[in-house]
Amino acid sequence: MNRRHNSSSSKNNFVRIFEVGPRDGLQNEKVQVPTPIKVEFINRLSRTGLKL
């Protein structure tokens, strides 16, 4: 996670969250997740409005 420290008076204070489940999270599964399941997972995440 990259953090930027700006003064609290900055007008550009924001938090950016990235979903990395399709890339990093699936590596923790005990069995290999088939590609069609990964595609469905990514499609469902993208329908939530998350930027992948």
Molecular structure report:
The chain is an all-alpha fold. The chain has one domain (1-52). 25% of the residues lie in helices and 0% in strands. It has one helix spanning 35-47. The radius of gyration is 16 Å and the shape is elongated. The mean pLDDT is 80.
Please tell me the total number of domains. 1
- How many beta strands in the DSSP annotation? 0
| Cα Rg | 16 Å
Measured between the Cα atoms of the first and last residue, the distance is 16 Å
Q: Work out the helicity level.
A: 25-40%
Shape: elongated
Would you list the SSEs in sequence order as H and E? H
Largest sheet descriptor: none
Strand % is under 5%
> What is the mean predicted local confidence, pLDDT?
80
How many separate helices? Answer: 1
Q: Note poorly predicted spans.
A: none
Structural class: mainly alpha
GO molecular function, one term: metal ion binding
Enzyme class: lyase
Catalytic activity: (3S)-3-hydroxy-3-methylglutaryl-CoA = acetoacetate + acetyl-CoA
EC number: 4.1.3.4
In short:
Helix content is 25%, strand content 0%.
What labels describe this entry?
mainly alpha, metal ion binding, 52 residues, 1 helix
Give the topology, please.
Layout: H1 35-47
